[in-house]
């Protein structure tokens, strides 16, 4: 079988995604500034926002390559962390007992090895003076808006740059 590139996939022949049957995306309507309508009048820019919280994974190739090298347990703990971190926070308090139970980790040694691996590869860093609290690397993943959380780190660029 020959190699198929993503650009060669004919989406019209894929059929229907089997996961859509029970999918309900709840949205709220909100205002996001103003836009000029077809008559040249400034009107509210109405947008739809999903109601459920979500985490973003930033997909630079170098991030993907490091992630692919993580052990199963480290990847499992990182994913668990992204599910449990509070929106807009760049740190997490780890309820070790809950994490171990939900991830089916049987020994503290295995948990610590996963956390050490995540530290070694720059996914997390311990918060000094706070037991079981870790900084999360927002360049790899974040739940919420990095623009709102880190305004001093925002670099505004113009289209085409």
Q: Briefly, what is this?
A:
With 161 residues, this protein is an alpha+beta fold. It is built from five helices and seven strands; from the N terminus they run βββααβααβββα. It has helices at 61-68, 72-84, 96-102, 108-120, 146-149; strands at 27-36, 42-50, 55-57, 91-93, 124-126, 133-136, 141-143.
What can you tell me about this protein's structure?
It is extended, with a radius of gyration of 21 Å. It has helices at about 60-70, 70-85, 95-100, 110-120, 145-150; strands at about 25-35, 40-50, 55, 90-95, 125, 135, 140-145. Helix content is about 30%, strand content about 20%. Strand 1 and strand 2 form a beta hairpin. It has 5 helices and 7 strands. The chain has a domain at about 55-145: Arc Repressor Mutant, subunit A (Orthogonal Bundle). By secondary structure, it is α+β, with helices and mostly antiparallel strands. Helix 2 packs across helix 4.
Proportion of helical residues: 25-40%
- What is the radius of gyration? 21 Å
- SSE order in H/E notation? EEEHHEHHEEEH
Outline type: extended
CATH class of one domain: Mainly Alpha
Structural class: alpha+beta
State which percent range the strand residues make up.
15-25%
State the end-to-end distance: 40 Å
Low-confidence stretches: none
Number of helices: 5
Give the beta-strand count. Answer: 7
Overall pLDDT score: 89
